[in-house]
Amino acid sequence: MSAWSTVRRILVCSLAATLASAGIIAAALPSEAAVDTQTFVTMYSTTGDSIGQGNNYAYSEPVDDIGGNVMTAENDMIEMIVDGANGDWFFLTFASVRGEPLAVGTYTNATRASFRDDVSPGIDVAGDGRGCNKAFGEFTVRDIEFSGTDLTKLSLSFVQHCEFKNSPPIFGEVVFGEDALAAPAHVVPWNVDWPSQELGASGKTVPVRVTAGSSSMQLSNIQVAADSVPADSVDFPFTIDSETCAGALLAAGSSCKIMLTFTPDVIGDYAGTLVIGGDISANIALSGDVVGATDWHQVTTNASGSQDPTKEVQFGWQSTFHATGDATAVTVTGRSWDHHVNATFAAPQGETLTAGGTYLAAQLYPNQDASHAGFALAFDGHNCSESYSSFQIDEIEFDPGTGAVTRFAGRYQHNCGTGLDDVAHLGAVAFDAQGGLPTVPDFGQFDGSGPSQLSVHVTPTETNYGRRLDVSGALRDQYQKTAAGQDVALYQLSAVSTHWRLVGNDLTNADGAFLFHHTARTNAKYRVEFAGNPLMAPKTSAAAPSKVHRVVVAHLSDSRIHVDRPTHLYGHIESREQGIRVDALVRDPQGHWVSFITDTTNRQGGFDWRITAHVSGTFRIRVVCEETVRLKSGLSSTATLHARG
Questions:
Q1: pLDDT digits (tens, 9 = 90+) for 501-542
Q2: Which candidate in 143, 274, 336, 360 could, as Cys together with 284 as Cys, close a disulfide (CB 3.0–4.6 Å)?
Q3: Residue 534 to residues 367, 421, 426, 480, 562: CA-CA distances in angstroms?
Q4: Distance between CA atoms of residues 509 and 486, nearest Å
């Protein structure tokens, strides 16, 4: 034993002796476990339990020191002290109603032992510097004996929840001074009582250890029997995950281990037995139960990453979970050891909530206007000063006599704030007053989006090549509410293409407006697309056209020439593009413009033609830039040629 363990034992014994001399308690701390008796403490901590940190613990005399103190003269409170050889230390306190000696039986609704009221039993499992401010639980005493105010025998199993009645439990067994279950071997534990759990959950995996005595021991078969299960149970509830005991020859003092799991398939009580055969015969009692649940499932998505990407919360049999209200508004409240959720679903003024009904663009309850539904969601203390939501009612039933809500199920899509952003809270709730397992709606199948309105304008509708175009508009919902912070995309369909091309993205501002700056290079149509969000359907705007002109500059090298003498018609387009078609036209005596040269611009966007007049007269010549034969979109440049004979 370490020096520290020795000091602790001396302190405990001295304190016990001091209190005993004062007539307050009597102490019994056996120094060694006799060969025909057994003393041990097991504890199995589930994930989230603060006392055991999710681990399994087992302590046995004589390797570990385990003492039992009687804390009162009435024998109504005992304390088990574990001084582990590995340095662990734990205190396990169990108490009956004040003034009544602890006796064989089950003690339910226990609270922290030292602070219990006069009508409640007590429990307090603490150690290694960890304890509960509030403790809740129950324990079953299978055997207990006192000699005056000394504890001489004890066999009990327990379960404790720290701080809240439904927080993750720690459970286990205490055996003190009892006749060994399978002497000369030591088997730990003797009973495995899994805490009550909800359907669909698996119980904590629990180890059973068999240790040979002073001589070797042969083990044979290891099996689990289900002694009592619900009538509609199909799957075997108690299973061996792994084991090293079947057929093992254990040397003196050596051990083997069996890992057990409780996985029930229906609501009800279960009992079974782990049978260990060979040179010893040991039966380990197994029990567990499954209760109905009322469920709330909440999933939160947050694109900014400031919260967990997904969060699913289930409120069950040990939670506070209820629905209140009437056909105009229902409030569902769930409170567990680690979560508190409150949601209200309200119909528009003059209407009632109906099964199958969808309510879009709900405003923050209870401040919604007469034409809108109302919705409010508070989650773990977080709520909205303004919100924008949609919801669907899947089930709603009331007691015909009292009017109380008996069944309710709904799903929602919830945005917190004055405008729509891309962060939506999605969830569903189901409540059954009878305590059954209700069906939680699949909120992923709920389309809470309402119609969107998207306008778009191009300014100016006609402009010269290379100039700036402004494409603007606004995004609104079906109630003309602005949609701020929404991604919109600008697409262009040019005159020479058959495909819409993405040319820009923007976010709507606080007024739901957007503005794209685009360089005009071709005749085109423009449209804006909105991909939608949980509250607004996708939308594509109508197409807005824009006409683009290329400016032509044309000159004559000599505007006064003789018949059959040449001159040069030359110039360029202002955009300086290569390969753009240009036409030279002359007006005939009837006033019609007739093309006499067709060409494309050179690398500098220019052209240079040699022309000759074969008759005398004054001629008007126009050079036109045309994008295609069918779309004449260019501005022309004209010149006058005088030819004389």
A1: 999 999 999 888 999 999 988 889 999 999 887 667 789 999
A2: 274
A3: 22, 10, 9, 17, 77
A4: 8
Give the number of other CB atoms < 10 A from CB of residue 454.
22
Q: 315-338, pLDDT tens digit by residue?
A: 655 566 778 999 999 998 877 666
- Are 61 and 69 within 8 A, CB to CB? no
- Read off the amino acid at residue 473: G
Mean pLDDT by 10 residues, the chain (645 residues): 31 34 35 66 95 96 94 94 96 96 95 92 95 94 94 96 87 96 93 87 91 94 91 88 95 96 89 95 93 51 36 58 90 76 92 91 89 87 79 92 89 69 67 66 62 88 88 81 86 87 92 91 91 79 88 87 90 84 86 89 91 84 60 58 78
Burial class (CB in 10 A: 0-12, 13-18, 19+), 620: middle
C-alpha to C-alpha distance for 606 and 587, rounded to whole angstroms: 23
Pairing of strands 105-112, 122-127: parallel
Instruction: Tell me how crowded residue 628 is: count the other CB atoms within 10 A of its CB.
Output: 11
Contact 143, 131 (CB under 8 A): no
Q: In this structure, are residues 359 and 390 in contact, taking their beta carbons and an 8 Å threshold?
A: yes
Partner residues linked to 396 by β-bridges:
408
| 566, amino acid identity | P
Alpha-carbon distance 528 to 544, whole Å? 10
Angle at CA 193, nearest 5°, toward 191 and 196?
A: 175
Give me the phi and psi of 632, to 5 degrees please.
-95, 105
CA 43 – CA 64 distance, rounded (Å): 14
DSSP string, 235-269: S-SEEEEEES-TT-EEPTT-EEEEEEEE---SSEE
Other residues' Cβ atoms within 10 Å of the Cβ of residue 171: 27
Q: How many Å from the N-terminal Cα to the C-terminal Cα in the chain?
A: 134
Could you tell me which residues are beta bridge partners of residue 333? 322, 342
Helix (H, G, I), strand (E, B) or coil at 486: coil
Query: Which residue has tokens 């499954």?
Result: 290
Which token pair is 20? 């005993």
Are 336 and 313 in contact by the 8 Å Cβ rule? The answer is yes
* DSSP symbols for 462-485: EEETT-EEEEEEEEEETT--B-TT
Tell the burial category of 14 from Cβ atoms under 10 Å away from its Cβ (0-12, 13-18, 19+).
exposed
CA–CA dist 470, 517 (Å, integer): 5
Look at the block and give the residue holding tokens 């501005």.
635
SS3 634: coil
User: Any idea which residue has 């955009």 for tokens?
Assistant: 575
Residues 6+ apart with CB under 8 A from 482: 419, 474, 475, 476, 508, 510, 511, 512
Q: Are 633 and 523 in contact (CB under 8 A)?
A: yes
Closest CA to 423 of 501, 534, 515, 343: 534
Q: Which amino acid is at 594?
A: V
Single out the residue of 299, 359, 300 nearest to residue 329, CA to CA. Answer: 359
Q: What is the DSSP string of 78-145?
A: EEEEEE-TTS-EEEEEEE-STTS---SEEEEEEEEGGG--TTS-EEEEEETTB--SSEEEEEEEEEEE
Asked if 371 contacts 361 with a C-beta cutoff of 8 angstroms, the reply is no
Is residue 415 within 8 Å of residue 425, measured between CB atoms?
yes
